[in-house]
């Protein structure tokens, strides 16, 4: 896909404002880390891998403008600000840990040297993410052999990553090998990532797409119109439980009921071995206005009580396989994830 989610250019971070798609393609330029942090919080950029890349670039950008004897204190402020942006996507913390390690290892070389190293590491994380997604897509396309009608939820495409995508990376790779593939996309309330972003991406790539409201999943499965479900992940626990966009758990339950394989596609940076199970994953609670309004127009009575969790947990028992850039992890996940990560 020609559209770029995030770029580093002339010591600026440039992001496609995903809040405005599909109506407008507007790129925002950020020259300081506070702007990058706000962009992550406000979902100018979203998707776990893309958030990780943005956080890394935010650290590098912030470091560029720090001067003098307060360098170490200001760097800690930069890390602290970015760590507080969104709590669920583990890629954010994975990327920040990589940046912190580079900072610690090269701080003794002087301020200018560590600034260069941080910039290089952020760009490395960016390039690695694209390469990982492409490899994940190839592996997934080989593994998901008997599916031509794929259902997905939210957006796990190029817009959710540095490029190419995870769940949609598998779909793209299927198409690139000459297979006929069509995608059923849930609208993904309340932020409408499926309707606004996934359907837009697939249209750009000329991949057949059918848009569903979220409550149509059971119907299309019952009618035999789904061969496989492929979704992304914001965090994968050590036992294989997965945090993904709210609504994923219900789809997994329906897939099991209808004997449809349910696959998770995510880079290994989304695996959190320090998190024993999904019950330990923090679930972000977002502004109730996202539920009560669509494009600033009220659709609910004023004052009604609203809950708005951004994610839910799909237990590992409901997952058929986890597709990564290093291979496919199959059950039993409690054993295989840890061995897989340690031995690859």
Report on the structure:
With 344 residues, the protein is of the alpha/beta class. The chain folds into 2 domains: 6-132, Up-down Bundle (Four Helix Bundle (Hemerythrin (Met), subunit A)), CATH 1.20.120.420; 144-343, Translation initiation factor eif-2b, domain 2 (Rossmann fold, 3-Layer(aba) Sandwich). Helices cover 41% and strands 17% of the residues. It has 11 helices and 16 strands. It has a 7-stranded mixed sheet with strand order 6-5-4-7-10-15-16. A hairpin with a 4-residue loop joins strand 8 (235-237) and strand 9 (242-245). Helix 1 runs antiparallel to helix 2 (48-64) and helix 4 (90-106) runs antiparallel to helix 5. The longest helix is centred in the middle third of the chain and has 33 residues, at 111-143. The protein starts with 5 loop residues before the first strand and ends with a helix.
